[in-house]
Each structure stands twice: as structure tokens, then as C-alpha cells.
Amino acid sequence: xxxxxxxxxxxxxxxxxxxxxxxxxxxxxxxxxxxxxxxxxxxxxxxxxxxxxxxxxxxxxxxxxxxxxxxxxxxxxxxxxxxxxxxxxxxxxxxxxxxxxxxxxxxxxxxxxxxxxxxxxxxxxxxxxxxxxxxxxxxxxxxxxxxxxxxxxxxxxxxxxxxxxxxxxxxxxxxxxxxxxxxxxxxxxxxxxxxxxxxxxxxxxxxxxxxxxxxxxxxxxxxxxxxxxxxxxxxxxxxxxxxxxxxxxxxxxxxxxxxxxxxxxxxxxxxxxxxxxxxxxxxxx
Length: 285
Known about the structure:
This protein is an alpha/beta fold. The chain has a single domain (10-284), classed as Ureohydrolase domain (Arginase, Chain A). The chain contains eight helices and ten strands. A hairpin with a 4-residue loop joins β2 (56-57) and β3. The longest helix has 22 residues, at 263-284.
């Protein structure tokens, strides 16, 4: 595990690794991306964007300060299985040090690698436009379109915001009794309560694929899909999840920089700030 020497830090936090509670780890994975390449540049772009935001979170009424240490970007090659092992070991190191990992990606397959570092009692809440329950894709068993299915082999999965899947995936999700909240149901209050009740008292990992949002507010992704959720929807879900569960890790994946149009990276940064602020304000109460 490589420690950053104080440069390229999320929110320009100047806290030591020993004193930090959260460890941001940039994962520039872009091996099995099938449509628009470039997500490997997402982590660095998110970190740069975070420096334009305030530490004070007005939505949560919390100042995020002296909590985050940023690790150096992982060095990943073109072998997906080798990349999975490097990510797994890196997340395991963070957990062994008593820190909460915050992974920046990169293609969503990295979430599967991270899941292998956690006990099987940790439940994964995955915000994604895609079900990602394919058994293989383009001849690859480990790929971004199979991420949720792979995670679910060991850890219980909950899907939020999905609107792109095939009939085989639909049947598989139904057969496994997975809570899959489709885009058109995200604004129903009873759906949020159902998720809250199912996660109450559980250890939870939150994974956000940026294509879960409407392309109007997050155009810089690898596989955009129309009719995405709003940020208000996400924040409402995040409040419910964090209020009743124990956050053990999170990631923000699939950010693909678009040059001067960096609203996706700004949104990705805000997600991290809001989730950590929600978690810390809960602890401070």
C-alpha cells in the first residue's frame, strides 16, 4: 500500500494516515469497459474536482475536516484477474489498519474485487443504471457487466436505480430474491422504508456507479443511460441507509472525464463529502 506524500489529496486534507478515519484509494481500472473508454482517468479528475468544493457540507450541516487520507493511485495492468488481486489486497490493507476505504474508479468491476476483502455479512447497496447480473460478457467471466452478480456470490446485494437489463438478468434477480429498486420506484416513500428496514443494524458498503444519475447531471460516464435518478433521490436514500446501518466502505465508480465539462467529477466528489458527513454527523450526535 503506497502512502501519498501530501500531494493530490481529496479536499486537500492534510491529515496523517495514522490519524485519518477514511482512506481514499484511486483505482484507475479500465480493462473490460465495453463502450466508452476513459474511466481510468476518473479517480484523478475526481480528486482535482474535490478541491473546488467546501469542506462544510450545507445539506448535512457538518464540516468535514481532518478525516481523510488519500493513497497513491494503484498501478494496474491490462490483466483483469491480476488487477482484482491488487485491489483486494489494497482494500484489505486499509481495513487491517482500521480505516474505512473510499474507492474511486475506474470501471465498476473494482467493486467485486473490494468485496473479497470484506466478511460475507457485509451487505452491498449498489446504485447503478445497469443490473450488472450477466453471467459473462464479451467472453469474460469477470467484467463490469457482471459486477453485481459477482459480488452477490458472497455478499447480499441491493440494487437501486436500475433501468437497463435483459430478461435473463431480470429472472435471475427475482430468483435470488434481491431487492432491486427500479428507476420509476425510487421516489416512492414506501420503497425507501423497505430498504431501511432490510438494512437496519447491518454492516453496509455503498457503491455508486455514476451512470445511475440522469445524463443531464452526470454525462461523463462509460455507459450512459437516459432517465436517471436525481441527486435529491440519492441523498434521500443515503440518509436512510446511513441512519440505520454501519458504513464500512464505499466507492464511486465509472467516472469518465470529458475535458472542460467536469460536472460529473464535481457530483462524484459531492457524493463522497455527503456520505462521509452523514456518517460522521450520526456519530457526533
